[in-house]
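This section describes the prediction task in plain terms. A model, or a person checking by hand, is given the sequence of a single protein chain and must write out its three-dimensional structure as a string of tokens. No templates, partner chains or ligands are provided. The sample shown here is typical of the held-out split.
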Amino acid sequence: MNDQNIIIPVFGMLTGIIIPVTVFIWLYYDAKGKRETVLEISKNLDDPSKVEELLKIFEERKKEPIDYRRSGVISIFVGVGLYLLGFLAMGRILEGVGALVSFIGIGTMIAGYLYPNTGKELTDAVEEFEKK
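The expected answer:
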């Protein structure tokens, strides 16, 4: 192989390292401004409960549980799309991948119906059980 043909595989291998490092640096600098803001505001607050309220405002995590039915439907249609892409253009391997993703979506959707996850669904399930 000459030097021109080796450049593409080297860049391909470096991409696996460059992308995660870039994302890590981006997330670090994105959160850095928030941390500095919380630090400056907390220096001027005397009440610890106000600091806790401030931290809750900046917390980005969702309080709701994951809706497995929704993610199951999404997975089903992604799998169907992969299957059709394999059927029409790419070949048997992509058809198999699409079928696998669809079945994973079906299983996830079934899990969403078997295990209620929102507070209202849990309350309704308990009330229905108590009626029996």
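For orientation: The mean pLDDT is 79.
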